[in-house]
Amino acid sequence: MMLKTHHSNIPRVSGRAGPQLKKSSRVPLVVRAVASPIDFNNNKRKTDSRPSVVRRDADGSRLFVDKEGQVTKAMAADYGFRAGAGRLYEEHYGEVPSSVIELATQNFTHELAQMRRAFRFRPHLDQVLQKSPPKTALGKLNFDIAERIRSGLSNLDESLEGVGVLPKLDPPPPLSQAQLAEFDVIQEKLSRLTLDNDAVARVEKERNQRYGELYSPLFVKLPFDALCLVLDVVYINRPIQKFWVLETVARIPYFACISILHLYESLGFWRAGAELRKIHFFEEWNELHHLQIMESLGGDQAWFDRFLAEHAAVLYYWVCIGFYLVSPKNAYNFMQRVEHHAADTYTEFIEENRELLASIPPPMVALNYYRNEDLYLFDSFQTCDSEAATECLVRRPACNNLLDVFINIRDDEDEHVKTMKACQNESIARDLAKGRGQPIELE
Fold this sequence. Notes:
443 residues; mainly alpha; two-stranded antiparallel ribbon; 15 helices; disordered N terminus
């Protein structure tokens, strides 16, 4: 029996219809791959459209030209902590990594310099205080203690630098003229973005009232509620940083599923679910781009945010491993809850900041992902209703500004919700194989 997955239960933001969707005459699949395969002999898809290119304008601004010839002005700079080497579509992209010792040394050196700048120059503290100043007596006391600790560490750093124990702390590299012109404008706009946690809760409540609340066992619901509580408390009025942390951990469940499925195959326990590994890789690739988009907006600039997110990701990985070992269905139920919450959060964020987001150009990583010449991996995790429709709708999202980018991310999370729902059906791998036209031995 072909698995039926219903269309999204998540409230839609108006204005997303139009050129984003194109009809495909293919037989509808549960989770499908509809893009043309890559021709490795020609190193491009078999298409008459030209490949995507990036060029610089006269003032240094970056212009993205997609395969259809559409020119889009991108952000002049990547504001992430890891901008440059080691990032998608940046310097050294696609190269084989060096040894773990060399990579760890490079990362430690980079993180140490950033931590020292956090103590010495308070690069993000003023911004946080401006948006969320301490109001209660306890909050003011905590801030005063933290400021005294920071001041002491700053004095210690200067002393160690003076006697040669630590290297001289250099200022950050200068920006180009276009980057300087854009930097203040973009940063000012990004600093005005808001996210009301109470409004997000209302969006979730309305969805539950309209479509029914997702049932989850208590041992699934408690970790989810704890995760949401930590993010809501720590990241009040810091939506981009919150999204970066959320996207850092959002990739982890797919990695955990792939790890367990690969282990089962290697031990000979279970090989019938290999199709699931493919789907989870496509989903992880999508979440990776969400993460890179948030990084390009500066979501990972603060040392504390990186410390929290990266250590939480390691812990979260083993939690997901435990879930999947004991009960894959409940693991998928947990992931469905997380993706539902992410989609609801982005829905409210878009409604609160629609005009402001529309005035900001898209990051280059978003253009490379959503407007690339080959969308095989993007198409492969889309889910459609195989019984209620005779044709599948192929998403071809617009990406003209940051509003388009966040609508695309919200819709991606919507697709993950549907896929996680489909994965709770025991016949999902069989349906995937059937949808791809592979022969299946019937009983």
